[in-house]
Structures are given as structure tokens and as C-alpha cells.
């Protein structure tokens, strides 16, 4: 169960937000975020190296690789990463790169294998990445096979979700999740089932679209006929956690309101009042946004595909329905969400055009949009402030507003 203590503080924070006539005392005017952070090739190269290649990234759900030998190839960081369900039940990640001369161990993006045999010259690896056999070993003088295991990548599970991290010795995933790990207990991460996934290509820098999912200031404009009808952005409570994670809880206009699209769906009795009756949207740094609910969990993932190209991927999970066919109501639910997604993506290309223009003067963020500023502060910490060109740096402003725990 969710820590019960978190429910009352969140409700109190939403009540405070409704009542305030200005940001809380001491909240600063946020300086503009330089537009070059979305366009400058040198900055984007730093971001690629220090962020995308050194963060825990959601890769797949265990239902996609349920048995030993099942694999999936994850290609979101510029490296082909092979994620394999081992004979011992452990899920591991390796570069899909033979240690001989780099041919792939698997060519399909998903499937099932007994072992990993390179099709170029036949080097053979176990599902744990160990080099087992090679042809004509006599022709490699002083060859020590133990030095030629597949290159391993940090891979950890949280419940049924699999994450990878290309950093050599990253902080454990659980530590990275911080308080999120405790708060998600109410949606039973070890019981979720995979439902559906789909990616959408958008012509903008990955951050342009991610920004839209870190605030609800835009509800009254672009979601007037959808989200704004049941959520009240004036009561949104926001929590900034250390290391870039954050939470935004937007109250339902009516506490007894039920999303008609979820009527008749299985709902988790373990869900807290916040999860079941409001809209808590978590952000796991850098690119996972999830507005969890008692009836289903969408992971909204933001993937860079180049300086001005990205993909937004939506992966749906459901509470365990105990086998049998999926409830057909899911089709409509997913279609409804897609409609909201199109509302969110409509300006992305135009914003990209603007941030690349000489007329752009930076992002001017308000109190409600502080999660975007928090995201950028963390990016500079990860890159290392000494490496960020001065004209693209973000001044740290939000430290006094970062909390270790919501409970306090
Ligand atoms: S590249 Fe794999 S065996 Fe030669
Ligand atoms: Fe939106």
C-alpha cells in the first residue's frame, strides 16, 4: 500500500494551491532557459554522452520476454542493446556486438534463442554473455576466452519493468527511483501486465515535447474538450525530488468523477485515494512520464532520434486480470489517449522552428512550470557545470524547493 502519510500532505498541498494568489513566499522569478540547449550541436553532444548514455531508461516489460531465451533489442541510445531472459531467470543486457568483429548476435528485434551464436564466424555465447566456443581457436595465440564475454550493461528490474543504464557503475535503480519506489507500491509493480505499445515520430528536439508533459498550464488552451473537462489545474501540487525526478498531482474537478473510458475495467483496490481519484503524473528522470491510475498505467517515453527528431512512445500496462483475453474496453481507452496525445504534439514542429530562429529569446517559465526548470538544472548537474558553455547554462534556483520526501 502507498504510505498513507503521503495522501494527507498531497491533499493539503492541492488545497493550498487553490487558495494562493501568488507563488509561495520566496519563490524566485525563473531566468529564461537558453534556446540553444534545444539546438546547439555541442550541447546536444554533451547531453547524449552524459544523460542518454548514463541514465536508467525503461526498456521493456517482462511480458515481452517471459521465458528463458526470450530477447528484445533496445536501440534508443545509439547502441544496439540486447536484453535477454537468462536460463536462471535473471534478465541481463549486453551490446548486440560480437567480441570478434562486431557482427550482431541477433538480427531480429525480438524472438527466442537457445544460445547466442554469431552468424559471421560462429563464436558462441551463453545467455549470460560468456564466450563458450570459437572456431579455430589455435589461430588466436594466447587466447583467454574469459576476457571475451559480451559487453555487459547495467540492467535491473523494478517489479515487471526492465531498465538499462549504459554508465559503467550506475547508482542502483531503486535508489534512483527514491520515494517513487515506495509510492508506486499501491499499483503493485510486480503484478502489472503488458497491454500495448506504439511510437509516434515528431519533428522536434526531444525536450520540446517532453516539456509539454511536465506542466498543466496548457490544459485550458489545447485540452479544452478533453483533460480540462475533468482536471482543475489551479489545484495542481508539484513535488521536486533530488536527482531530477518530480511529481505533479492535479485534482479531479469532482472527487467522485469516474473516467467514462475506464468504466467496466478492473481497478486496483490497493490504489491510494490520490491514485484512484486524482491525477498523479510522475516523472522519472530523464524521459519517463506516467500518469498512473487504478485502472491502468501508461508509460510515456521520450526518445531522441537526432537534434530535431524524436519519438514519443506510449506503453500501456494493466492490473493483473488473471489470464484470458484482454478486456475489449482497452481499445477505446487507448484511442482516447491517442486523441489527447495529438493535442499535445500539434505545436511541436512549430516550436522547433521557433527555437532555431534568431528571434527566439529563451523559455520563460512560471511557478506552475517549475518542473521544466528542475529538469534543466539536473541536466547541467549530470553534464557537469564546468563543461556547460556559460551562455547555455541554467542558474540553479530551485534547491530550496526540492524535497527528500513528501511525507514531511
Ligand atoms: S564477428 Fe562474430 S564470429 Fe566473427
Ligand atoms: Fe497536455
Describe the structure.
The chain is an alpha+beta fold and 408 residues long. It folds into 2 domains: 4-54 and 179-401, Naphthalene 1,2-dioxygenase Alpha Subunit, Chain A, domain 1, CATH 3.90.380; 57-158, Rieske Iron-sulfur Protein (3-layer Sandwich). The chain contains 10 helices and 17 strands. It has a 7-stranded antiparallel β-sheet with strand order 1-10-9-4-3-2-5, with no helix packed on it. A hairpin with a 5-residue loop joins strand 3 (81-85) and strand 4. The longest helix is centred in the C-terminal third of the chain and has 17 residues, at 329-345. The two termini are 18 Å apart. Fe (ii) ion binds at residues 212, 218, 223, 344. Fe (ii) ion (FE2) is lined by residues 212, 218, 223, 344.
Shape: globular
Number of domains: 2
Report the CATH superfamily of the largest domain: Naphthalene 1,2-dioxygenase Alpha Subunit, Chain A, domain 1
CATH topology of the largest domain: Naphthalene 1,2-dioxygenase Alpha Subunit, Chain A, domain 1
Stretches with pLDDT under 50, minimum 5 residues: none
What characterizes the major β-sheet? Answer: 7 strands, antiparallel
Number of helices: 10
* Helix-residue proportion: 10-25%
Give the percentage of residues in beta strands. Answer: 15-25%
The SS-based structural class is alpha+beta
Amino acid at each position: 500500500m502507498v504510505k498513507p502519510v503521503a495522501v494527507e500532505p498531497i491533499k493539503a498541498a492541492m488545497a493550498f494551491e487553490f487558495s494562493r494568489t501568488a507563488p509561495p513566499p520566496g519563490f524566485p522569478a525563473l531566468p529564461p532557459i537558453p534556446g540553444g540547449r534545444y539546438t546547439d550541436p555541442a550541447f546536444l553532444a554533451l547531453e547524449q554522452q552524459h544523460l542518454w548514455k548514463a541514465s536508467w531508461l525503461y526498456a521493456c516489460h517482462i511480458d515481452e520476454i517471459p521465458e528463458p531465451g526470450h530477447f528484445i533489442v533496445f536501440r534508443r541510445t545509439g547502441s544496439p542493446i540486447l536484453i535477454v531472459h537468462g536460463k536462471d531467470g535473471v534478465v541481463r543486457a549486453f551490446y548486440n556486438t560480437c567480441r570478434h568483429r562486431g557482427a550482431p548476435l541477433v538480427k531480429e528485434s525480438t524472438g527466442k534463442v537457445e544460445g547466442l551464436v554469431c552468424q559471421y564466424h560462429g563464436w558462441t555465447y551463453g545467455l549470460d554473455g560468456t564466450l563458450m566456443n570459437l572456431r579455430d581457436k589455435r589461430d588466436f595465440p594466447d587466447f583467454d576466452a574469459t576476457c571475451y564475454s559480451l559487453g555487459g550493461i547495467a540492467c535491473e528490474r523494478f517489479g515487471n519493468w526492465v531498465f538499462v543504464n549504459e554508465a559503467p557503475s550506475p547508482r542502483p535503480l531503486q535508489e534512483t527511483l527514491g520515494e517513487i519506489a515506495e509510492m508506486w507500491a499501491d499499483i503493485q509493480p510486480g503484478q502489472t501486465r503488458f497491454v500495448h505499445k506504439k511510437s509516434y515520430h515528431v519533428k522536434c528536439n526531444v525536450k520540446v515535447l517532453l516539456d509539454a508533459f511536465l506542466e498543466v498550464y496548457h490544459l485550458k488552451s489545447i485540452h479544452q474538450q478533453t483533460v480540462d473537462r475533468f482536471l482543475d489545474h489551479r489545484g495542481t501540487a508539484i513535488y521536486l525530488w533530488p536527482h531530477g525526478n518530480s511529481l505533479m498531482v492535479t485534482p479531479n474537478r469532482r472527487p467522485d468523477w469516474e473516467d467514462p473510458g475506464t468504466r467496466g475495467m478492473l481497478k486496483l483496490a490497493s490504489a491510494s485515494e490520490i491514485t484512484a481519484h486524482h491525477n498523479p503524473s510522475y516523472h522519472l528522470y530523464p524521459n519517463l512520464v506516467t500518469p498512473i491510475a487504478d485502472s491502468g498505467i501508461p508509460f510515456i517515453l521520450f526518445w531522441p532520434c537526432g537534434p530535431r527528431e524524436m519519438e514519443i512512445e506510449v506503453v500501456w500496462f494493466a492490473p493483473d486480470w488473471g489470464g484470458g483475453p484482454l478486456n475489449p474496453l482497452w481499445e477505446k481507452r487507448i484511442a482516447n489517449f491517442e486523441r489527447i496525445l495529438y493535442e499535445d504534439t500539434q505545436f511541436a514542429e512549430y516550436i522547433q522552428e521557433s527555437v532555431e530562429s534568431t528571434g527566439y529569446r529563451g523559455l520563460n517559465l512560471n511557478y506552475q512550470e517549475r518542473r521544466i526548470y528542475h529538469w534543466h538544472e539536473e541536466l547541467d548537474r549530470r553534464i557537469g557545470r564546468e563543461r556547460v558553455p556559460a551562455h547555455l547554462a541554467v542558474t540553479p534556483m530551485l534547491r530550496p524547493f526540492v524535497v527528500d520526501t513528501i511525507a514531511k
